[in-house]
Automatic annotation (TrEMBL):
InterPro entries: EamA_dom, EmrE-like, WAT1-related. It is a multi-pass membrane protein. Residues 21-153, 181-319 form the EamA domain. This is WAT1-related protein. GO terms for molecular function: transmembrane transporter activity. One of its GO terms (cellular component) is membrane. Its main location: membrane. Keywords: Membrane, Transmembrane, Transmembrane helix. It comes from the Eukaryota. It is found in: Membrane. Belongs to the drug/metabolite transporter (DMT) superfamily. Plant drug/metabolite exporter (P-DME) (TC 2.A.7.4) family. It comes from Hevea brasiliensis. The chain crosses the membrane at residues 37-62, 74-97, 103-125, 137-155, 179-199, 211-231, 251-269, 276-296, 302-321.
Amino acid sequence: MGVKYCLLRLLPFAALVMLECVDTGLTTISKAAMSKGMSHFVFVVYSNALATVMMFLFSFFFNRTKRPPLTYSLLCKFFLLSLVGITMMQNCVFTGVNYSSPTLASAIGQLFPAFTFLLAVMFRMEKLDLRSSRSQIKILGTLVSISGAMIIIFYEGPPIGVTTLPSHPEPVLTAKNSWVIGGLFFATASLSLSVFTIFQAAILRGYPSEMTIVSFYCLFGTIQCAIVALIAEKNPNAWKLKPDIELVSVIYSAVFGNVVTYSVATWCIHKKGPVFVAMFKPLGIAIAAFLSVIFLGDTLHVGSIIGAIIIVAGFYGVMWAQSKEEEQIEAKEISEQQSTPLLGSRTNV
């Protein structure tokens, strides 16, 4: 019984570590496909379309008897959820990957906890007392994380482990501009992901069916992304999938990037809440750097290392203050539960 309980408690931790590996692998393999000329707009449409088919099949066989009734209001919520979490977020991510690298994607992705905290405060899902030292640490940590992201975007710095200097200044300027553009797209994606997580947590309170939610927002996301791709992608040949890294990246994105990631993340949000899910983002920096250097031949830069350290420091400051507040709330609840029977026994006497 004790071993089973421990395993159940560790399951969300293991699941989110796996998701960070899957997410970083997705940006790495998609970068490889886009380097071959694949359109990122088409990529998003195909991966979500395949994920939609898979999710509705799973939902039909495993969830049709457990699914709560659907309403028009719920479908509208799913539509908005897909607009933020798929159409905006995924297109921004893969556009940013096309301009820069998976390492930058993972580094800027550390803004996700900071944005989530700010939105939670705005929507009163998180209590904030400016007179409390813990609340002050939360605010300071959030500002530190945002400043770290700004360093990564606007200061690339010299490469680590490379001694040869480029001889042509114009390509360097172009690369610098691409780095900044990519960073801004990733920052927008992090904000979209935060809105998506907060919104999804609110929906799960009234409709606790993870598989149904994932199925419908994959469907709506496919329709929305197809409209965007038809407008943005003028070349009809871009819709032809080559049986190489392009096909592999679409299948990987559909299976792991959409079905596995969305299902597991939705389950973890339902069980542990959005803040718990955000805690695991910093793990992606090391994974992304490792995969990018090995598989894509990318070079680490000083700006990325400095910015990532600052972001993680600010983030864990917020998490430390959050954990202390939760401990205080739990201690207060325990003391109230212990004092209630004593009061009741005295009145009976």
